[in-house]
Design brief:
2 domains, Rhopdopsin 7-helix transmembrane proteins, 12 helices, single chain, alpha+beta, Alpha-Beta Plaits, 7 strands
């Protein structure tokens, strides 16, 4: 296998990957996919130029354009990985290096630096771009990302080989782009393997993230960040079954914000949304990690208390009620206070979740009739 054949494989492979990403369904974060597609097209055009050079269509302009497009492609590819991982500031780190690399390669090309030294520069630049694409994929301590580690390992091989090739070319004056020596061939083959594995690996990563986003959209209430009604009922039902097996006590709290319609009417729905968000924050701050909270209606919420006796459930309910009463939402220097009524039901030995919801709702209505801002046990 000679360099021309490998360049042809790289040209065709990058085109196919670009088309695959174009046909991939978009869920969110189009910027990541757009960067990746632009990278693949840029690299494909660059390898097309390298094919022409390898078959004898040489020229300073063609060589410079091919190298610049290759640098640009690898920079965009690294940027796409950084963007995928949430590092929106990637241009601050990658663009200065890209601009410097383009300037140096243009300068050396115009002033006729020997071919082997130009290869040294390009090899080091490409190797560094491989490393830049690897850094964001390093998993956090709590992150179990096998696919990330595989891509890191695959990235490391062409990065190392490009650095070796650059050093080799520095000392071997006869090394050119089309030379069929073992170092060149291994480097080109490693870049082909990188293209395939990184391309499909990134495709899988994006698909995995898209599935997580869809799951998030299907289970989380967009306004408060709590579980929506369906997700809350599903999780509470599972926890109830597990608690029954352990023989532990569980309880259910249902909430209704008092006079919420009055807040909407007097201050507007935007302020009403702030009140709902404030209540959700109080729930997150005051509840235990084992408890499950969700928004079950407009101003209605519910909490499933795991491993909780009646006395503890009453204490938690009173703590939430008091925290809400002490809180306020400020609008134009006016502090808007609000309260919450709570119905509490301790699960009986044979209670289903529906049974507990009905009982807790009756207790909630009793709390409303009793003057609001109170806790009633069913």
């Amino acid at each position: 296998m000679d360099p021309k054949t490998i360049f042809l494989m790289l040209w065709l492979g990058n085109l196919i990957l670009a088309v695959l990403f174009l046909s991939f369904p978009k869920v969110k974060n189009r910027r990541t996919e757009s960067l990746w597609i632009a990278a693949k097209f840029s690299e494909a055009i660059a390898y097309g130029g390298l094919i022409l050079i390898a078959i004898g269509k040489s020229g300073i302009f063609l060589m410079l354009v091919s190298n610049i497009l290759l640098y640009l492609g690898f920079a965009l590819e690294a940027g796409a990985v950084w963007e995928y991982r949430g590092y929106k500031n990637w241009p601050r780190y990658i663009l200065p290096f890209l601009i410097s690399a383009i300037f140096i390669r243009t300068f050396t090309g115009i002033f006729g630096l020997r071919a082997n030294l130009n290869i040294t520069i390009s090899s080091y630049v490409i190797g560094i771009f491989f490393l830049l694409a690897t850094l964001p994929l390093i998993p956090d301590k709590e992150e179990k990302a096998v696919l990330n580690r595989v891509i890191i390992a695959v990235n490391g091989i062409p990065a190392l080989l490009n650095l070796v090739r650059g050093t080799f070319s520095f000392f071997i004056s006869g090394n050119t782009l089309g030379s069929g020596n073992i170092i060149n061939l291994l480097t080109y083959l490693a870049m082909f393997v990188f293209m395939i594995s990184n391309g499909f690996g990134f495709l899988l990563l994006v698909r995995e993230k898209a599935e997580r986003e869809l799951k998030h959209l299907a289970t989380i209430d967009y306004l408060t960040g709590l579980l929506n009604r369906r997700a809350f009922l599903e999780q509470a039902d599972k926890c109830l079954l597990m608690a029954r097996r352990r023989g532990s006590s569980t309880a259910l709290l249902v909430f209704d914000l008092d006079y919420f319609k009055r807040i909407n009417d007097n201050y507007g729905h935007a302020i009403g949304d702030q009140v709902l968000q404030a209540f959700a924050r109080i729930c997150r701050d005051r509840l235990r990690n084992t408890d499950i909270s969700g928004r079950t209606g407009g101003e209605e919420f519910a909490v499933f208390l795991n491993d909780c006796a009646l006395e503890d459930a009453i204490r938690i309910a009173e703590d939430l009620r008091g925290s809400v009463a002490d809180h306020s939402v400020t609008v134009d220097t006016v502090a808007i206070r609000f309260t919450v009524s709570i119905g509490l039901r301790l699960f009986g030995a044979v209670d289903t979740l529906d049974d507990a919801l009905i009982s807790a709702d009756k207790a909630l209505y009793e709390a409303k009739r009793s003057g609001r801002n109170t806790v009633v046990v069913a």
